[in-house]
Amino acid sequence: MERACFDYLIIEDSSMVPYTFKGSHDTYLRYGASTPKLDPAVLVPYLAQATKHLGLVPTMSTTEYPPSCSPA
Q: How does DSSP assign 1-53, residue by residue?
């Protein structure tokens, strides 16, 4: 991607498996389409070791991480 002059790579975070095709998850799981997805928080450090000029933009779904509580 660096050689192709891309500026950045957005890595989507989602644990959802679609079920829009025929109202079932089966096809998506059978062929690995749109799933499974790697956790960007784990994947980005590995990608960062392999690039010098490519920006890495991980997205973090707020539904998958509990809110942090600040001490009172």
A: -TTTT--EEEE---------GGG-SHHHHHHTSS-----HHHHHHHHHHT-SS
Query: For 9-55, what is each residue's pLDDT tens digit?
Result: 998 887 778 788 888 888 888 887 777 677 888 889 999 999 999 99
- Using alpha carbons, select from 7, 5, 29 the residue that is nearest to residue 16: 29
Question: 25 and 17 in contact (C-beta within 8 Å)?
Answer: yes
DSSP state letter for 71: P
**Residues 6 or more apart whose Cβ sits within 8 Å of residue 15:** 37, 61, 64
Predicted pLDDT of residue 42: 87
